[in-house]
Amino acid sequence: MVTDRGINGSEVLSHMAATNCFFGLDIGTRCDDLLYRQETIEKAISDISDKNLAEKAKNFIYYSAGIWPDVEAIKDRHAQMKILKDFISKGKRIVAIGEGGIDHHWNPSGVDGHCESDYNTEIYQGEHELFEMQLELAKEMDLPYIVHSRDGFQDTLDCIKNIGWNKGIIHCYSYGVQEAKTFLDLGWYISFSGSVTYTKKAKMDEMHELLNLVPKERILCETDAPYLAPVPFRGQPNTPALVDNTYRFIAEQRNISVEELCETVDENIRNLFKV
């Protein structure tokens, strides 16, 4: 979870429990991180002094398992898929595959560390294959897939269509209205993170249109912790305790109450993840 980055996981989970959090999904990015993540969260729950809150936290936490498309994972994709499947067989409370997908954002100094020179033809094609293998796994297991897609809309779409699995989330959505229509037409849910609160005034009309385009039965909200902390916490480590700022922004744009948005998202979670 977020405890590796200097954030007290037990405090975050305790806060979530105290505010009656319905669902918390700890998302995987490495082929072998599932059991470690589960152990880390179980330890954090055991450190919660209020046993009622600890029990609540235990009940609302679920997991996904997937492989993020870094260059080394792409090169070693066949071996990593075997490891991923092995860890999934040993895990528990797994309700989704992912995150994984397509990332063509070049920022060597950023978190992702991607350079354009990293992506020759072999890596480019391998990235597609790694994504498609995970989509195929989700299809075989009849689980939702959590799609990571950044600066690669068409490649993402091509992979999804190749496998024919349209059950899951376009996570941390970063495209525009037309791309959203395409994903929605295929049956995908759209999930918004704290990044929507960064919208500049000149782009607010477009964001308003996007946030109102997504139908009630397909909208989700997320943290992407420890990244993308919403305004007024932008630039700080993110935690699920800050997600109410994202909810308030989206609710205001959709002209509904925060309570109504929470109820809508919770119902969508029930329908997608069968919890």
Question: What do these coordinates show?
Answer:
By secondary structure, this protein is an alpha/beta fold. It contains 11 helices and 7 strands. Strands 1-2-3-4-5-6-7 form a 7-stranded parallel beta sheet, sandwiched between helices. The longest helix has 21 residues, at 121-141. Residues 1-6 have low confidence and may be disordered.
Question: Which keywords apply here?
Answer:
single chain; 275 residues; 7 strands; globular
Oligomer: single chain
Computed Rg: 18 Å
> What amount of the residues lies in strands?
5-15%
- Could you tell me the number of beta strands? 7
Chain-wise SSE layout:
Elements (H helix, E strand, L loop, with lengths): L8 H10 L5 E3 L7 H13 L4 H10 E5 L5 H5 L1 H14 L3 E10 L17 H21 L3 E6 L2 H11 L4 E3 L6 H10 L2 E4 L11 H10 L5 E3 L21 H12 L3 H16 L2
Parallel strand pairs: 1-2, 2-3, 3-4, 4-5, 5-6, 6-7
Helix pairs in contact: 1-2, 1-3, 6-7, 10-11
Short description:
It is built from 11 helices and 7 strands. With 275 residues, it is an alpha/beta fold.
